[in-house]
Structure formats: C-alpha cells, structure tokens
Amino acid sequence: MSDLFIRLATRDVEALAGWRAGQPVRHGEWLARVRAWAALGRRTGATQIALYSEDSLEFGAALFGAWLSGKTVWMVADTLPASCAALAGEVGAFWGEFPASCTPAVPAEDDDGDVDWTAPAPDFPAMVVYTSGSTGAPTPIRKQLSQLTGEVDALDAQFGAALGDAEVLATVSHQHIYGLLFRVLWPLMAGRAIHAERHEYPETLARALAERPCVLLGSPAHLKRLPEHLDWQGAREQLRAVFSSGGMLEAQASLHACTLLGQSPIEVYGSSETGGIGWRQRGLQADEGWRPLPFVQWRAGDEGLLEVDSVQAGPGGWQILSDRVEALDGGRFLLRGRADRIVKIEEKRVSLDAVESALRATGLVLEARVLACLDGAAARQSLAAFVVLSGAGAARLESGSKQALNNKLRMLLASSVEAVALPRRWRYLDRLPVNAQGKTTQALLLALLEPAPDSHPRRPSLRVLEQAPSRALLELVVPPDLLYFDGHFSVAPVLPGVVQVDWAIAYGREYLGLGGAFAGINALKFQQMIRPGHPVQLELVHDTNKNSLNFRYFSDAGAHASGRILLGT
User: Could you give the CA distance from residue 56 to residue 197 in angstroms, rounded to a whole number?
Assistant: First the structure.
C-alpha cells in the first residue's frame, strides 16, 4: 500500500467512493472533504488529535486530512465522559462528534486548498488505538504508518482477488482497529464503495445486503444473533465474503451464519498490539486450525506461548502474546487459550478458561464468562460467573430458584474444579453484554455485580452502548423489585408507559445534555410490554431542527415503545 496516497489523489473523481443515506458519494466529493480537514489541520497547532465520527466516509476523510497535515490521530470507541477525560490528558484538540464540553472542531464551510499527497515516512506516528478492554482496562497502543499499510497489504494479498469491486457493509464500528482496517483503509486502497452508516438492525442489514455485490464485516456477537425469520435470500446471492473478528466465533455460530448467508465467515485473529496474525474459514468441517496471514511469521515459544514477527506488529522484532498455541500441519496453528487468564484464589492457580469450559460441559450453560473479583468487606478474591443458560438450564431456573441452580452448577463443577475455584457469585443473563465493537469487556461484566442503591430502585441497571452529541444507545435491564411494579399488576409485573417516557426524558437530559421543559409528545406507541429481567435497548435521538427527542425501546423480541417528545425553549 506504499502508493495509497497517490492512488487516492489520482483516482477518477467520478468513481464511486461509497453510499450515504442511500445516495452515492463520488470520489471527488470525498477528496473535497479531505482537503477541508487538511485545512483545519494546518491551522491547528496541536499534533495529537482525537477523532470521532460515526460516518465512515467522513472519518476516512478526516483521518487522511489529519495525516496530510502531520497529525497523530487518537481513536477511541466512544465519547463517554471517562473516555473524553482520559483523552484530554493526551491530545491537544478534539475533531468530529465529541460532546460540546470537549470543544470539538470541524472544518469551516469554505475550508479547502491544495494538498500535497506525498505519503508521510513509514515511521510516521500515524495513530494511537486502544485495546478492547476484554481482558483488562483499555491500553493505548501506538501505530506507525508502516504498520497500518502492512495490515492492508496482507489483507489484500490474501482476500482481495475474491472480493473484486464488492461494496463494504458493516455491523461493527470503525472506531476500533478491526473496523478501521476493513471498513476504511482497505476499501480506500482497493477502490471499493464504503457504506457510511453502520447497520445496527438485522432488518435493514438484510435489505442492504441484497442490493449489490457486497462484503459483510461482522463480529461474533452480531453473527450468532442473525434472526432466522428474515429473508436472507438476496444476501446469499450478493455476498462475496463475510468477515468476523473482535473475538472467537463459536462453531455453532459460524454454521448459523453460513446457513443464513450462504457464506462461511472468514475469521481473522489478531490484537491491537500485534495487528492481524491469522485467519480461518471453518466450513462444514469445522476445521479449528488457523493459517498465518501473508508476511506473518509465528512460532511457539516458552510454555507454548505464541510469538509473532511481522510488519504490522512493528519494528521491535518478535512479540510474545498471552495466547497458547499448538503447531499443526501445513504451517497452521491451534489456539489453546490465554495464559493471562490464570488467577490465584487462596494461593491456588485457577484457569478461568477451564472453569468456563467446565460450565459449558454441564449441558445447562450455553455461554459463560468467569472473572476474579473482590468478594465482600473481607476483600477476598473469588470468582463470579456470568452465564447464558441453555434450554435445559433455563427450564431448571424457571421450575426452581436461582439458589438451587447455583448449587446445582457448583455440584457439577466439583468433579473438575477445585473447591476454592467454584464461583461464589452468579449472574444469569439473556445474553452477554457487548459494546459497539461486539466485545464483552470486563468493565461491562463487573458493572452487573454492582448492587442496587436501595431495596426498591426507581431506575433500571444501565450501560451505554453508544454515545454521540445527538444520539445515544442504552441497554436497560429492569429489576424485579422496581418501585413502579407495585400495583402494576398483581398477576405479572409490567413497566408502566409513563415510566418509559419519564426515563427517555431523564436519559435524554443526562446523555445528550438536553434542556427545556416538557412541551408535549407525538406519535406515542406501545407495542409490547417490558418485563423485569429482559434486556431492552433505548435509542435516543435529538432532532435539533425541531427541538424534539425521539425515543425507541426495542429488544430481540421486536419493538416495545416509541414516541417523539417536544421540548420547550
């Protein structure tokens, strides 16, 4: 990809750069946005820039505008207050869709000018990305330009010929290394049309996949939940490839996606630190072996730990990962779990991977994540289990009690897990929580252990999935002892509609900074009841032109409620 900058500068201005809201965006329009962001960069004194934009085409233009004006771009997965506070100590300017408190900058309407498309040096400090947080707190990782170009060269060498001119659609964000490479940099290099918006809902995804030859960028969390009742025939006819990264895709989920989409997902394995390492496409044979990507060397080092050397991993030579590997024939390797998932409980070494495997082997558990955490006032470390039950497990919970199921699982684990390693805290979930990248992070799981503030809470447990200045996506789980269930109703608790509206207003003020008094409500609909314990998502969108707040409650079961709240000045 050494000539990427020249390719972009000389590509036909009438070529299709991508699609935005169903309308084509020409390459000349995209180049104009690059020039505008570069003009902003020339008058920005800071060299360290935080960038956030939900629009992939605009993000790509801002990224190249920053690089062409000598800026290092810091990329984060969200614009939550904690993320912005962490960035404030590292960068000198915020670009794009950050909250007003960050004083974000965007190009002026008349920003333009000549751009020197000479590529920066290979060792140019192009970007800082953060680890996903799935095994700990997110950590910043610095990337030279040569590492990013090496990533794209490897992907194009391995998969480019089969993709041709297919358009690029995604359910994952580009504000993470996987989405950045597959959804922005690689398509720009290859001249593939980019869909600016991320497809959050399977209904719109199924329609979009059926329109033209395309590639789907997904994650395990998205692919395993593709609903069977939708019409995927058009997608099967148009898809050239399905990619999955950001976590391990279970064999059953791979088969599920293949059945619906007609393509066995291509899984890509790597890390923020090392870049892409290997790939596999299981097919019906469920081959678990991984093949190294082009230009990647690997070996099994001490204690079977994977060691990698590649351009994308950086100039430091061999890097040691925390993943154990086993060599297979043909230069392939098998992943054998993470060495850093060994914890000490009362001086005993415990493998969290082994406990999770033992839970799944009981037949009562579909998915499991186990973490070490401090237990009670004694501050003693113990294990907490976050469990998605199988049909048999759900039936046992329904017919008994949570404590009885806890005891049953502990008894089944006792034959393979030492007593000190038996989980003491249990959370039974409809599904594991994931962020916009499809990652289940430690922070999301540990938040589920926080106790309710009083015996009769007035709010649901909440986590923020996405946040931008005019839009927020929240996940709510209503506790069974919610104050508002009292008397509503005696047969089965149902969340009152007035409470749903009140929460929408309250969270709109909290996460979108909305002011103004309540001035009315339009288009109010209640389609399905919201029951305790079932996760629902709440989408909030601020229409600045009408000064209204559009809200929508929905879940895997479909739509629950929606409306448009009018706000006074």
Answer: 7
Phi, psi (deg, nearest 5) at residue 530: -100, 120
Structure tokens, 454: 């009083």
| Range 4-198: architecture per CATH | 3-Layer(aba) Sandwich (3.40)
Rg (CA), the chain: 24
* Structural domain spans, the chain: 4-198, 353-429, 451-567
Amino acid letter, 410: R
Written as six digits, the tokens of 172 are 């994952």
pTM (2 d.p.)? 0.71
Q: Which two tokens stand for residue 24?
A: 């084509």
Query: CA–CA separation, 470 vs 273, rounded Å?
Result: 32
Q: Which two tokens stand for residue 283?
A: 């097919």
Lowest mean pLDDT among 54-68, 101-115, 206-220, 513-527: 513-527
Place of tokens 């706000």: 567
Token pair in block for residue 510 = 């909290």
Q: What is the mean pLDDT of residues 129-134?
A: 74
CATH class of 353-429: alpha beta
Q: Is the dihedral of CA 113, 152, 19, 179 positive or negative?
A: negative
Average pLDDT taken over every residue of the chain: 89
pLDDT over threshold 90, residue 250: no
| Band of pLDDT at residue 378, cut at 50, 70 and 90 | very low
Topology (CATH level 3) of domain 451-567: Thiol Ester Dehydrase; Chain A (3.10.129)
Q: Between 97 and 350, name the one with better pLDDT.
A: 97
Distance CA 426, CA 537 (A): 23
- In 3D space, the residue among 462, 503, 502 whose CA is nearest the CA of residue 479 turns out to be 462
CA dihedral 399, 353, 474, 204 (to 10 degrees): -90
Angle value at C-alpha 475, between 548 and 409, nearest 5 degrees: 170
- Sole residue written with tokens 């609909």: 525
Count of other CB atoms within 10 angstroms of residue 411: 11
Report, as an integer, the average pLDDT of 528-534: 83
What does the pLDDT read at residue 415? Answer: 81
Instruction: Judge whether residue 1 has pLDDT over 50.
Output: no
Give the C-alpha separation, 492 to 487, whole Å.
10
